[in-house]
Task: structure prediction
Amino acid sequence: MPSSASRRIAAALESRTGPDADAFRVAATVVAMWRDIEGQLTPIIGQGGVTALYGRSLYLAGREFPWIGSPAKSVAATLDLTALHGALALQSSAIATEGGAALLQTFHTLLVSMVGGALTERLLHDVLLPSSSGDAASNPTT
Amino acid sequence: MTSPVILTRLSTGVTGLDTVLGGGLPEYSFNLIAGPPGSGKTTLAHQMMFALASPERPALYFTVLGEPALKMLRYQQQFGFFDASAINTAIRFINLSDEAIVGDLDLVLRRIVDEVTAAGPSLVFVDSFRSVMLAGVAEGAATNQLQAFVQQLGVQMTSWQATTFLIGEYFDDAEANPVFTVADGIIWLRQSMQRNSMVRKLEIKKMRGQATMAGLHTFRITSAGVTVFAPTPAPVADTGGTASTEQVLSRLAMGVPGLDEMLGGGLPNGYSLLVAGPSGSGKSILAASFLAEGARRGEHGVIASFEQNPSRMRNPMLADLITSAPVSLVDPGSRDLSIDELLVLLIDEIRKTGARRVVIDSLSGLELALAPTFREDFRESLARLVFALTVENVTVVMTTELEDRYTDLRFSPYGTAFMTDAIIVQRYIEVDSRLRRMMAVVKLRGSSHSDELREFTIVDGQLRIGTRLEAQEGLLGGRPTRQRSDAASRAPGRNGGDDA
Result:
């Protein structure tokens, strides 16, 4: 049974992609959500901290979705969201949605394990809010 | 016309710290929280920040190099003071590691000033400031540049009406450092190691504009955060007379039939009584009876127990009293205790419950619970303990282990006899090939008392005081002999209490 956070992430993603979104739109939405997370967390834990957590999330989610990519071989300075966008866009819409949500969920779980649920909720609250307008496709980030 | 500016003092939210600071932290002051790694600097800073920050008085917390911000949040969020709902409303964290790693102090300062200008915070924290300085050194920044940086930062923060805290790792407070000169306040945290014991200590090395409490003050970090054990008032010279004769208006019943009579009518209110005796002689039972008698009379009691496991009280009567609440148990819980910490716990409980009777069972256990560094001046610490409790207007019974020695006559260990108002001694004696117990009141300041050596027994967990041990002499030698018949009929006498 999916957790409450998992449902919220899926709902936020679905709300931002809108109905009948193709894989490209899903990829753009997932990347937009990562940009939001980056914008929210970088001032607090630094670019290096966010990049390290992203790399770990890729590694963990990659076990179930090997196509999603793998962490950079060397210590990355920034999030390689172009690679993520490319990987998602190559999948079917359903698989891209599932994999993108799983990556976000993994990141959420990782952050909860680090700083607790209350603080994670505080930090990611705005990112996980379902969008009222579904703006990802009109704001591609790659 | 000149009227001095009244400095507002901020309450730090750290128990005991405001007292040590001399009334709180001056608003708009520029402070350094310094100490070696692991001494509690970041925890202290966070605790103050969460106490002080509000949407109306926002805080900016700059993290530089040093402890990664993620790990810092991971460890800080476990403390009781950490309020996640304050993040991004009252408190904003800003990571400066990218600027610091370049080693450009101007860049770091500019970023701090930009953020402060944009946010207008009332509280600014820079953690760790040492990292900023080391970054400067890496770039070959000269000392005067560093000093200029610190001074600029100080001026900027004060001008922006922000109370500022620089958190930094420093090992040597004797080192000449421009930060020490510029700072209005320096809170220095230390960890004192002796044998296998570690004691945390805090010192206010400097706090402009107010009189702080000098010296090292012990503190502890628990899940609730930092608690500083501010010292109680020091005893004045010759504190032995803790309660003057005029003050002794009433007496407290001891709860042991016959003992009040031996004490000339009970233990005078506000007195401290030392019950000394060998292991198993009944000291704790006497102390428990004192509390039970108080409970019967509706007086709350407090006991500080240093048994191996206070939750498994050997005395069922006392265990019942603690369970049913007329007696509060103060259990310091951990070792490496300081007298100041015990006093804070005791006085808190006394004030909370309005207790009139206090028991410390035992001083021997207390000595073992103290950190080795405090054992060296145990006698002085006890004097402070007794004095501080007397100021609280409670009547204190303390027990102490006293090894039976039949070659000399001693009434208390540690040379503590002079600091208590009353002493009862219990001893074992051998009579007719039986081990029997006797007790005597050897001191009761400013009051007459019995001079009899009375036999007593322990029946069903209660003391039963018997008669004077008649027809025996040499009792204090442990092996009495029968008196000759002409001396046996001498009447019991009373002491005049001239040892005051």
